[in-house]
## 1
Amino acid sequence: MSAEKRYKGLSIRKRDGFTGEKQIILPDKLLRERIQNDPLLNNLYITLIGYFPKASFHYRERRWGCKDNILFYCIDGKGWYENKAGYCEIKANEFVILPATDKYLRYGAHADDPWSLYWVHFCGDQIPHFNRTYDMRQFLTPTILRPDERRIRLWEEMYDTLEMGYSLDNLSYANFCLYHFVASFIFRNHNFSSFRKKDDNIITQAILYMRENIGQRLWIDDISEKFSYSASHFSSLFRKQTGFAPLEYFIHLKIQKACQLLDLTEMKVKDIAAFVGYEDPYFFNRIFNKIIGTSPSEYRKKNKG
C-alpha cells in the first residue's frame, strides 16, 4: 500500500510538535562558521537530531531531496518512506539510512501504529566518499537490530551535549560521538562491535578460538572443522567479514600479542616467539618485521624509550 493511500482521508499531517519530542536544528550560520572550515569536524557532522515518541500524523515531504544522510532508528510502532525507487515500511527495532540525494523523498508515521524513532541528519565534505565506501544503498532496506540501550545512550550523549550550547568543545564531542553512533549501525554484525554478544557470530567465535590458541599452530581445516564448515566456505565468510584470510588474521593476532608482551613484560624475544607459537625466533623476527615494519628488539627499544 502506498504512503498516499495510508493517508487518504487524514487531514492532519505534522512535521513535528509531538508530545515528549526532542529536536535540535543546528543553525546554518553556526555550521558555516564553526564546523565547515574546521578540518577536524567538517568531514562528517550533525545538522539535525531528534526523537519523536508515538509520532501520530508525522509526515515530511522533500520535493528536492535532502543534502544530508538521514538515519532513522525505529524503536516502537511503524513508519514508512517513499522515493523514486518505491515504498518501504519500517517497523520496531529496524533502521534505515537514507543517503543524501536531490531526488524526491517523503516519509512519515504509520496511520494506525505510529512510530517512535530516534533520528539524525549528518552531512560533511566526505559524505559522497562515505556513501560509496560503505555502500549506503544497502541501508535503504529496513534492517533489523537487537535492542540495545547503549545506542540510545550514545544518541543522548550527542543530544545532551548540543543542548548545553555550541561551544567548540561541545560541537567536537557531539560530532566525535556521531562516528560511534553511526558505526554501531553500519558495523552491527562485525566481530569488533560492542553492540552484539560474543556468541552471535561464527566469525567472532572463530577469532576467540584463535586467541585462546595463540600459542598453537592452527591450519584452516582445524578452524573450519571446529565450527562445522568446509574450509572454502569458512574462508569465504571470514574474508567477507574481516577482509583477511583466516590464517593471515591468526598471524596478526599472534603479532599483536607479541607486541603486548614486548610492551608490558621483560620476556626475552625468543621466549615471546615461543609463547605465540614460533619455535624458530629468526622466522618470528621475519614475520614480525613484515607486519610491524621493524624487528621485535627495535620495537621494544623504541616504545620503551
Note: DSSP finds twelve helices and ten strands in the chain.
## 2
Amino acid sequence: MDVILQQLANLSVLIYIVTTMLSMGLSFFPKQFIEPLKDKKLILKSLAANFILVPILTYIILQVIPLQTGLAIGLVLMATGAGSPFMLKLVQFMKADIAFAVGLMLILSTVTLFYMPLVLSILLPDVSVNHVSIAVSLLVLIFLPLISGTAIKWRYNNIAKKIKPIFNQISNISIFVVVLLYLGLNYKDFLAVFGTGALIAAVTFILTAFLIGYLLGGPSKNTKTVLGLGTAIRNSSAAFVVALANFSSEYDVMAMIIVIYMLSIILMMLISRIGAITGKASKDV
C-alpha cells in the first residue's frame, strides 16, 4: 500500500510541475520575455541576488547550522532554483510592478534551467548527482510546458484564457496532494525537520533572501518589493524535478523542500499583508 501511495505522490509532483509551468506559459505572450530586458542594470542585480548571493547565503547557513545530509540537499536545491510563479499572486495583491514581476519570473526560470545542473556539483561536492538527468528533466518538465503554453497564448489567445484556470486548479490540487501524501508517508522525516536546526535554517534562508532582493531591487519601492519576493520564494518545481530524479529514496530531501516552500509562502504572505497595510496607511496620511 505504501509503495502505491509513494508512486501516487511522485506522480502528483510531476502533475504539479507540468501544470504549473503550462499555466505560467498560458499567462504570457512571447514579447513579455523580452520586455524586462530593457533595464539591464536591474536584471543584472536580480541575477546576482538569485544566483550568486543566495547560494553564498546557503553556504554560510550550512556552515553555521550543520544539517543532516538530506536536509542540506533540500536547502541547496531550493537555493539553486529561482523563478516561482506563486510570486505573481503576492505582487498582484500588493499592487506592485506586475510587468517587472512577470519578466523577472520568466528570466529566473529560464536561467535556472542552465544554472542548476552546473552549480549543484559545486554546492554538493560529496553527493553524486546525475547532471544529464537534471538537465533533461528540467528541459522536459519545465521548459517545454512553459514554451508550449506561451505558444498557445500567442497563437490561440481565447483558448489559452479558457484552459488556463483548469491547469491552475489542477496545479493547486496537485501540490495539496503532494504535501498530504508526503506528510502521511514520511511524517517521521517531517517531524525530524522540526526537531533539528533545519527550521531555523529555513526561516533564516527565506527572510535573508527577501532582504537581499529588496536591497538590490531599488530605487523604486515597487521593484524592491518584487525582487524581494522573487528572491525569497524559490522555484519548488525545479527542486522537485531534481529531487525525484536523484534523491527519490531520501525522504528528508523532499521534506526540506516542502517545508521551505510552505514557510516561504506563509512568511511572504505576512510581509505582503504588512506592506499592503503600510502602503494604505501612508496614502491615507
Note: The chain has a mean pLDDT of 81.
## 3
Amino acid sequence: MKRMKAALLFLSLGAGAGMGCATTYDPYYYDTVYYDPYYGAYDAAWAYTWVDPVYGYWYYAIGNVQAMATVDPNTAASQLAANAATAFTPAGCVTATATGATVNYAFNNCTAPVSLTQISGNVELVLSDNQGQLAATATSNQLTINGEPYNLSLQIAGQPPDGDTRKVTVTSNSFSPNRFDSRTSQSTVTWTGGSGCITVDSTTQATKGGLNSTSTVSGYQRCDHQCPTAGMVQVDTTEGTFTTTFDGTNTARVTAPNDEIKTFNIDC
C-alpha cells in the first residue's frame, strides 16, 4: 500500500481475544501533529531572523507620518545583507547580496535563530513598504533544512509594536515534500525584540495523497534551539481529532481519537 497504512501503528487495545478490532489510522495524521508546528516554527524563525534586525527601521516613528513615508526597503535590504554573517552561523556559511529591495542568500550548512538548522541552498527575500508597514516575501531554490528538501514560500506582514513586543502575520505555503503534498498556513508570530524566543498561533490546511487535515496551533512557544515550552496542537481529520501538547521536553505524545498514543522525539 502506498503509505503502508498500518506500518507505524501499534498493538491495538482490541488485540486480545474477544475484544474485537481496534481502529487504525494512517500515519499521516500522527505525522501532521508533529510536523505542522515544526514547519510553523520554521516560518516563525525566518520571520524573526529577517524582521527583528530592521523592525525599528519601520516602526520607530509610529505616529509621525512624514518619517514613516521615508522608509526605504532598499536600505533595509542592505542592512539584512550586512547582518547575515551575524544572523547565520558558523562564520562563512552564507553569502548574502542586496540588489535594490531584494536580498539573495546562498547557504551552506547554516544555523539560524529559534529552530533553523542545516540550511543549504538559495533563498530570495524581497522587502517592501506597504503604506508604512513592513512587508516581505521569500522563495527558495534547491533548499534543504535539517537534512530534508524544503519548499520555502511565505509572505510576512509587520504590525506596529506593543511596547517591546514585535508582531507579524505570516502566510506560508512552505513544507518538505517528503512529508506533505501541500501546506497552507496563516499564523501570528510574536516576540520580544532581540530575545530569540517566539510565540506562534496558526491555522493550517495540509494534504498527502488523498488525505487532508486542518491543524490549529495555540500558544506554541520556543526559544533559541531549545525544546518548545508550551503550546497545543489540534489536527482535525475525517477520522477524528489528533492532539498533542508541549512542555519543554524533547518528546511529543500524539493522542488519536481512540486514545492510542504515538511518541515522537523532537529535534531540539
Note: The radius of gyration is 20 Å.
## 4
Amino acid sequence: MVMLFGESLTRREVAARLGTLAAVAGVRLVTLGDGHERGQRMLEFRSGSGLRFTVMVDRGFDIGECEHRGRAIGWQAPGGFPHPHLADAEAEDGLGWLRAASGLLVTCGLDQILSGDETSAAHFDYPGRPRITTTLHGRISMLPARLTGYGERWEEDDCILWCEGTVIQAGLFAETLQLVRRIEVDVGSDEIRIHDRVVNRSFTPTPHMYLYHVNLGYPLLDSGARYVAPVVETLWAAHAGADYTRQGIGYRTLPEPQYPFREQVWQHAMQPDGEGRVRVALLNDRLGLGFMLETRAAQFPCHFQWQNLRAGYYTLGIEPATNHVLGRRFAEERGELIWLDHDEECQYDTVFSVLDGKEALAAAETVIRTVTAQPDEDYPVPSGRFPPLSRRPG
C-alpha cells in the first residue's frame, strides 16, 4: 500500500485520484543550465511524503540536495555543485576535492580515502610509474556516471522510485574499478536505500578503500542539535592533547556557527545491534526533525564524526568507512588494506532516514540507545586503540 497524505491507498485508488503519479511523486531527469553547474544531469526524486532529493548523475552518482517539507537536510558548499570537468582532484597538492565537495552524500574512494600520500605502484608493473600519488578522499566523486536506468516500479500495491548508474575509475597501468549504484525510495516514504557494488574490472589485484561523507546542514544542524550514536569508545580525535577542550565544543551537542573554528574529527567505535546494523543520528528537538544513517558493521567497520562548524561552512559529517582514520599507509602497514582480484567485488547496503516529528525522533533515539548508552561526557578520552580490521568487508 502507498501512504499519501495520511491515507493508505492501493494502486487502483492512486490511479483513480491522479491523472499521473508525477503530480505528487516521481523521478525525472533534468539538466542544469547556468553558471559552473551548467550541463550536468540530475535526477530529481519526490517521494510524496515531503521528501525531495537529487542524484547528481555527473558527480559520482551522489546525492546532492535533500530536503523535507522545505527544510534542508543536506549541506551545500559555497560553490554549489560545480561541473566535474571544472574540478581536478590532482590540483593543489592533491586537495582539489575541497573545491568540489558538496551535497548530502559525497562518496570517497575507490582506492583511496582520507589524506593523500605516496604509495608503491609495483602491483601495476609499469616501470614509468614506481609510485602513486593519492589525493584527498580519492577521485570517484568527481567522475560522471553512465545512467543505466530510472523510473517507477509497482509491486502489487507498493510503488518504488529507483535509479541506477555506473561510474568507472580507470587509467592505463592503473586501477580499473567500477561503482554500480542503485538508489530507491518507496512512494510515501522518508527512507532512501542505497546499494553499492565496487568491482575490480582489471586483471591486476587492486586496493580498495571506501567512505561515505554524509554532510548535514542548517536548519537540521543548529544550536542544540544532538549527535546520537552507539558509541562504546572514542579511539581518536584530531584535536586531542593539550587543547582538547580549547574550542569548548564536544562530540554530543552542536553549537551555533563559530568564528574562528578549526575542524574537529573524531573516530568512534560503534556497537552494532543483534543484526549487525549501526545507526547514527542527528536530532533537532526544536524543529522535530532528524536524520538517521544505517550501515552494516561488517561493511563499514569504522565511523568518523566531522565537525566543520566554522561560520559560512557550517556542517556536520557522519562518515562510515572501511578503514581507520589514519589512512592508507596505516592500513598497508597493518595488513588491513582491501585488495580485489579480477571481478571481485565489495557490496554496501545503506539506509538514509529523515525523521519527521517528535515521535520519530524519540523512536530513533530509543533504537540507538537500546544497543548501548553513549558516553555522557563531552570529551571522552581517546584510547588510541585501533582494533584489527578484516581485509574484506562483509
Note: The helical segments are 11-17, 91-94, 328-333, 358-371.
